[in-house]
Amino acid sequence: MRYGTGAALVVAAGVVWSVQGVLIGNIAEAGSWTVLLWRSLGMLPVMLLWIGPGQTWEAIRAMGWAGVLGGLGLVFAFGGAITALQSTTVANAVLLFSASPFLAALFGRVILGERVSALTWGAIALALGGILVMVGGVGQIGGGTGFGTLAALLSAAGFAAFTVAVRWGRVSDTRPAVLLGGVFSMLVGGLVALVTSQPLLVPPLDISLAFGMGAVTLTGGMALYTAGSRVVPAAQATLFSLIEVLLAPLWAWAFLSETLSKNTAIGGAILLTAVALNAALGLQRR
Predict the structure, then answer these.
(1) Which end of the chain offers a freer environment for a tag, N or C, measured as fewer CB atoms within 10 Å?
(2) Selection from 206, 153, 213 nearest residue 31 by Cα
(3) What are the residues whose beta carbons fall under 8 Å from the beta carbon of 195, sequence distance 6 or more?
(4) Is 207:140 a contact under the CB 8 Å cutoff?
(5) Measured between alpha carbons, how far is 57 from 155 in angstroms, rounded to an integer?
(6) What angle do CA 97, 228, 188 make, to 5 degrees?
(7) Which segments cross the bilayer (predicted)?
(8) At what angle do helices 175-195 and 65-87 cross, to 10 degrees?
(9) Are 25 and 85 within 8 A, CB to CB?
(10) According to the model, what pLDDT value does residue 38 have?
């Protein structure tokens, strides 16, 4: 696979993930951890069919520790994001999620020995600046609790860890990491829901929306991202995926009648510029 194809797949993953906000906005009663449980459960049959009947265990063994580490990273990514959005402001959480490229660059440099060029660092800084404009300035960082801030950083670290683990494994089939992420997230979501007394049996529409997210948008996005990140350095892959942050407010404005602020439009334009610049730099180097 060429770099350009991999970059396009990662961007496509961000586009697919961006519609999940609209789906969650239509969930009426299910709590966050209950949504995590049903969404993760929706991933499993699709992933099992994708890997192939009778081949799951062999695929997991072939992936080795890279799959386990990647799956655990996804637990932090999924669970941390939900906890952050429940414990702090959306602006604070989104800004902290954007730390993922920085963490991926650091993990990739230390673990994989990937060199991060000054131009890539510049594109990351530009993207962070765009997200800062979107959420209304640096003053918004203190808008939530310390627990929510920690959860958001753990989510960013989890996604960066998944990205690096996939590349560290150096294997052709990375689907087991996504499958393990779904299994681990389902167990954690169910356990935390029970501990916090969130009902697991919610209205059928809520279950259907959560299950559909897992089966279609989450699994589809992870499939695209996993395939693309095999040929795209970790720092660049997480940066490309930030297209989700740009598109999610647009879908909410179009389908949920949420206000699209001037800051969102300006910051989104900056973020899109950073993503396009990063893509152009990657293609030019190759």
Answers:
(1) C
(2) 206
(3) none
(4) no
(5) 28
(6) 50
(7) 31-51, 63-84, 90-112, 119-141, 147-166, 178-201, 207-227, 234-253, 265-283
(8) 40
(9) no
(10) 94
pLDDT band at 255 (very low <50, low <70, confident <90, very high): confident
What is the spatial distance between Cα 100 and Cα 234, in angstroms, rounded to a whole number? Answer: 10
Average pLDDT, the chain: 81
Radius of gyration, alpha carbons of the chain: 18
Count other Cβ atoms within 10 Å, centred on residue 115. Answer: 11
Q: Give me the amino acid identity at 232.
A: V
Q: Which two three-digit tokens encode residue 240? A: 């490309």
Residue range 128-134: average pLDDT? 76
* Residue 108 clears pLDDT 60, i.e. is over it: yes
Q: Are 84 and 152 in contact (CB under 8 A)?
A: yes
3-state SS, one letter per residue, for the chain:
CCHHHHHHHHHHHHHHHHCHHHHHHCCCCCCHHHHHHHHHHHHHHHHHHHHCCCCHHHHHHHHCHHHHHHHHHHHHHHHHHHHHHHHCCHHHHHHHHCCHHHHHHHHHHHHHCCCCCHHHHHHHHHHHHHHHHHHCCHHHHHCCCHHHHHHHHHHHHHHHHHHHHHHHHCCCCCHHHHHHHHHHHHHHHHHHHHHCCCCCCCCHHHHHHHHHHHHHHHHHHHHHHHHHCCCCCHHHHHHHCCHHHHHHHHHHHHHCCCCCCHHHHHHHHHHHHHHHHHHHHHHHHC
Q: How many CA atoms lie within 13 A of 226 on its CB side?
A: 27
Task: With cut-offs at 50, 70 and 90, classify the pLDDT of residue 222.
Answer: confident
Altogether, the residues listed in the chain come to a count of: 286
Closest CA to 39 of 167, 190, 212: 212
Q: Residue 145: what pLDDT?
A: 52
Identity of the amino acid at 68: V
Query: Cα(114)–Cα(123) distance, rounded to whole angstroms?
Result: 17
CA gap 247, 49 in Å, rounded: 30
